[in-house]
Structures are given as C-alpha cells and as structure tokens.
Design brief:
Strand 2 and strand 3 form a beta hairpin. This protein is globular. It contains seven helices and five strands.
Length: 237
Amino acid sequence: MVAQKNNNFEGFSAETVFFLKNLKENNNREWFLARKKDYSKKVLQPAVIFVIEMGDMLQKISPGVQADPRINRSISRIYRDTRYSNVQEPYRAYLGLWFWQGARKTKDSSGYYFELRPEQLHLSAGIATFSRKALHLFRDAVIDTESGAELKKIINKIKENQNYLINKASYKNIPEGYQISDEQLKELIRFNGLAVHTEMPLPPELYNRNLLKLVFNIYKDWSPLYNWLTQYVYNEK
C-alpha cells in the first residue's frame, strides 16, 4: 500500500483497485467480513485523506462546499440497501466520494462526485434530479434574462471539451406557464436535473499525489455550473 506520509495524500494503491475488483467478483457477506480490515486500510484510509485535501482545494473555486471525511457523509457507505432494489448484491464495489452544497447533506444537494470503480474513474458535478422546489427555482432562473444567458454560456463552454457530457432533457414539452423563444433555453427548461460527467480508464495519477491535481482541474472546469446552481437554485439565504 502507498504510505500516507505526514497525513498527506500520496495516491490510492494497486491494492485499492485489486480489492474493489475482487469485491465485484465476490460480492457476498462471507468474503467481505473476512477482509474488512483490508477495506479499512486499502480503501478507507487513503479516501479519508483525499477528502480532506480535496475539500480544502475546492474552497478556492466553490466557497462553502462541504467535505466531511466520515462514512455516510463525504464517503459513501459500502453497504447497499437491498430492501427496495432490484440489485441484490450487498456491497458497492466502488468508492464513492461526495462534496456537497449546503449545511445539511440531503438527496437534494448539488455537489462534486468522485467514483473509483475497478476499471475506471467517474467524475461528475451538479444534481441528477431536482426536488420540486429546486425544479421551480431552476426553471425561473432559466427564463430570467441574466441567469439564463449565463447558464447558456457556461454549458457551451463545458461542451467545448468532448469528454464532458451534460445530461439531456427529461420532459418532452415546455412546462405550462413558461414562455420562452430561445431554442437552447427551450431544451434546458425541460431538464429535471443538471449535471456534467466524464469517465476515463484508471489514470496513472491515481497512484500518486497528482490525482488531486487531475480531479481538481476537472472540477475547476465545471465550477461555473456548480456555482450557478448554488447561486440560483440552492442559495440558502
């Protein structure tokens, strides 16, 4: 395992990936319980330090973003709730990290997301599905002359990078009560969430401190979208 000297993040290890790969292939209670200490050492330990350092870095581009290096806060639980799911595997065979907006972490929080899978790295920012309240605020911001124009500019800039993917409209029709002529805004107002994401094969930076820079630079590209959501949809003032 890569040593975490002086509590500085020095990368995940090949053993981190190997553990997740084996968990994916042996997703059962007996296998996991026999290797729970390996999970704590090889996955959780570097994840905690990554969350702390990335949280500090994110303050530079999105002041107020929350980073809490505890399980079920910034670090997703590995245990899967199978009671209401078609997926009956008891464990998540990936490491999910979440940096969110707002004093409380809820399902309706925008944020930056990091997901380390056995074969790839997935990053995203924004919110997958708006709550009813957030949806109304989003729609009002889309039709506003200033904030709507700003959103168009942000999305067009993000789309310049072909590796960055924006979610698509969820509704077929423009919601009742909204008058809009701009073609791009006609599409945006039919969104039920607003997020950008990218996926990549496991990068060489995963295994050293340069992962922080790699991830931060992508989040920095996306920060105007995150900050737009914070200002117009998730402003708690």
